[in-house]
Amino acid sequence: MLKFIIKRLLISSVILFFVMLVVYTLMHSLPTSYVEQMARELSTKPGSQKSASQWLAELNAQYGMDKGILEGFFVWLKAAIRGEFGDSWYYSIPVLEQFNKVIWNSFYLGVAVFILEIFIAIPLGVAAARKQYSVTDYTVTVVALVGISLPTFFIATVFKLIFSVKLGWFDISGMRGRNYHNLNDVQKFFDVAKHYVLPIMTLTVISIGGLMRYTRTNMLEVLNSDYIRTARAKGLPERKVINHHAFRNTLIPLVTILGGSLPGLFSGALITETLFALEGIGYTSYHAMVAGDIPFTMFYLSFMAILTLLGNLMSDILYAVVDPRVRIA
């Protein structure tokens, strides 16, 4: 297993290298006039002590824009390995500082959705498989198709219309209420938690559909297996057949999916966070990309690439851990 992990990490490093090379090439291909425009904007910001020409020289040197693509890429890569991603053009603070300010908002959102997804999608998928072609099965199928088919902005808009406009239970967007600064610590906590409800509901509806369908399909496959028919023929109670034999084998592929989604807890939900003005990494990255903030965009894309590679590695490892029949050669 250790040899396999080391091998996969080395392969992932090579993949990450070429992904970053492609991203840097796209950044380097931006028109020169764009960098000049950013230099002029930075020189006119309050507190700036540099002229436009000084900013232009600094930006070109910092990101290797005054060199060829390969040479400039290694300049950026060397700084990135040291954890130096420069200052955000849009937020006017170091990239890592802005990242640390918002990443935990996305993490709390991701954890809540992840827990709800497990406790809603998996039991419903199992129930649909146990009662195939019943009302329960059709209901679960419809809910799953709704979650898979409807876009995020539509579900978010419906929730806003019902719970914010019609019922007035929640604010339409934002992370804090109008009287936030007049509240004590406990009230502040519940005020922020209240603003998480609609984003969590939106992401949960979207995410449970695929997991429910996957659970149902795998459960049906297991229930039609020979060893399940044998267990029933021996007179075992149906509850024991389902919970002890069928469900445990259904979990094998599910664990790999859930394991691969764990890094996603840190990646943020760009569309949902933006729709609800939830100040997470997705919301922050959206505004940085729209504003042409190259330093933050480069960091965010690097961060997403690393999370994706770690998710794939985690899925492979978990599959070997939960299924003794799998042997890693």
Provide keyphrases for this structure:
329 residues; MetI-like fold; single chain; mainly alpha
Query: What is the strand content?
Result: under 5%
Number of strands: 0
What is the makeup of the main sheet?
Answer: none
Approximate helicity band? over 70%
Per the CATH scheme, the topology name of the domain at 100-291 is MetI-like fold
Class based on secondary structure composition and strand pairing: mainly alpha
Rg computed from alpha carbons, rounded to a whole number of angstroms: 25 Å
Average of pLDDT: 81
How many distinct helices?
Answer: 13
CATH-scheme architecture of the domain at 100-291: Orthogonal Bundle
Question: Layout of helices and strands, plus pairs?
Answer:
Blueprint (H helix, E strand, L loop, with lengths): L1 H27 L3 H13 L7 H11 L6 H13 L13 H36 L4 H15 L2 H15 L18 H39 L2 H8 L4 H24 L8 H6 L5 H10 L3 H29 L7
What this model shows, in words?
With 329 residues, the protein is an all-alpha fold. The chain has a domain at 100-291: MetI-like (MetI-like fold), CATH 1.10.3720. The protein has helices at residues 2-28, 32-44, 52-62, 69-81, 95-130, 135-149, 152-166, 185-223, 226-233, 238-261, 270-275, 281-290, 294-322. The longest helix has 39 residues, at 185-223. The N and C termini lie close together (9 Å).
